[in-house]
Amino acid sequence: MTRLNLGCNNYKIAGFINIDLDPNVKPDLVADLTKLTDHFSENSVDFIFAGHVLEHLPYQDSLMALKQCKHILRSHSIMLIVVPDYTKCQDVDVNLAEKIILANGDHKTLFNKDRLYRMIKESGFSYAYEVTDLKEVPYILVSNIRDPKPDPWQTAFIAFKTF
Q1: What is the secondary structure of 91-102 as a DSSP string?
Q2: Beta strand pairing status for 29-30 and 45-51?
Q3: CATH code for position 64
Q4: Could you report the per-residue pLDDT of 105-115, keeping only the tens digit for each?
Q5: Neighbouring C-beta atoms of residue 105, cutoff 10 Å
Q6: Are 92 and 118 in contact (CB under 8 A)?
Q7: How far from 57 is each of 11, 14, 33, 120, 158, CA to CA, in Å?
Q8: With contact defined as beta carbons under 8 Å apart, do 132 and 149 qualify?
Q9: Which pLDDT belongs to residue 159?
Q10: How many CB atoms lie within 10 A of CB 32?
Q11: For 71, what's the count of Cα atoms within 13 Å in the CB-facing half-sphere?
Q12: Strands, E assignment, the chain
């Protein structure tokens, strides 16, 4: 079974191929997420976890990464995506949250659940739904996830490839 952890940084998951662009974090595979098909053939991956990585890419690169994921996933497989949702920042005006999030240059794309859903659909996934309890997600049951509920400021979606 081939499972990928995209943009792993220092969060490595046992049993997954941990992928990052930065060789200094010592991933299993150093790779650009917009070029996953250079490393994986079509319909060769069983599950993909992308936790807090898409927001670090410009919008078009995030979209390309999703298209690459859809291409390499096997039929009837899923991808779990978790991103910060700037509209869920409690007690902070959305416009101020946007400025704060983009200020340090680390985040290149802002997400909310509508934008993420549109990107998932535009990238060709058959369908997607928002997840509020990660225990519902197959393959992600790993010992180092203590609290399987996404934080209130996050949005999590499962994207399905059915063909």
Answers
A1: TS-HHHHHHHHH
A2: unpaired
A3: 3.40.50.150
A4: 788 888 888 99
A5: 7
A6: no
A7: 18, 25, 9, 15, 19
A8: yes
A9: 86
A10: 15
A11: 17
A12: 3-6, 17-20, 29-30, 45-51, 73-84, 127-130, 154-161
| Alpha helices by DSSP H, the chain | 59-72, 94-103, 113-122
Domain holding 25, by residue range, is 3-161
pLDDT tens for 36-89 read 999 999 999 999 999 999 999 999 999 999 999 999 999 999 999 988 887 777
Determine the residue type at 159: A
Q: Provide the number of structural domains found in the chain.
A: 1
Amino acid at site 31: A
Q: Which two tokens stand for residue 35?
A: 């070029």
- The Cα 96–Cα 127 span in angstroms is 32
* Token representation of residue 163: 């063909």
Extract the tokens encoding 67. Answer: 């298209």
